[in-house]
Amino acid sequence: MTAKTAPIASMTGYARQEGGDGQLTWSWEIKSVNxxxxxxxxxxxxxxxxxxxxxxxxxQKHCARGNVQISLTVNRGKLPRKLQLxxxxxxxxxxxxxxxxxxVRAEPPRLDGLLAFPxxxxxxxxxxxxxxxxxxxxAMEEDLILALEALxxxxxxEGARLKTLVTGQLDEIGSLSESAAACAAxxxxxxxxxxxxxxxxxxQTSPALPEERLAQEAALLATKADIREELDRLHxxxxxxxxxxxxxxxxxxxxxxxxxEFNREANTLCSKAGDVTLTRxxxxxxxxxxxxxxxxxxxx
Length: 300
Prior knowledge:
With 300 residues, this protein is α+β, with helices and mostly antiparallel strands. The chain has nine helices and six strands. The radius of gyration is 36 Å and the shape is elongated.
């Protein structure tokens, strides 16, 4: 699957995969949330630290962005255990008994009583061979891959939902841009009328204004009232965003950049708005752009 045909994925997801080998059981748990880049944090059960770099490498193959937390827990309940005699503790107990014989009249301690004293008998797990450990770590790695595949599937399912939302919001931005272009205040005759009124007001306040200065002020007023460039850029940004959504893959960063550009143009449009209708359209644009950016923040 190429990058251009890869589906859009969310950065949020969760997966859990359990496994075992007859002696012990284990469980992989993976959580993924939004992040500016890929940040992997791994916590593995003591004795299996060799799996940490393996886990990081596998995550990088499945995820491009997001804060990913991986944990490996192990239940060693079924692993064979053996008893060991702690000679040091036993010798201390025997010495204490001997030291009290001259002061306390009592029966000599029985062997079962000495062995029952805390710390005299210890339990430990039987040591495994390197071959046994390698086989188990290989099985754990396979379960980790299954967990990451499940995480990827969840992120892509969420990505499909985000794609639908983002596409609808881009359509709304395009529709509002068309409404702004069709607004009476943006038509040439309306612009000329506004310009004539502003020039008349300018002449009333400064009747002796030179013609050259008057022409400059008129040109400035006309430039401030013209929103065609902003609308052209809005249309271009909508087209670019639609292409990114169609291409898929890890497009979250580029969509986030386009959201900044959308917001810039909407702000300029609002500042140039000369009537209530255009101002309302500009505010609606800003609201939709904010909603779009909230969704884009979740895209890988």
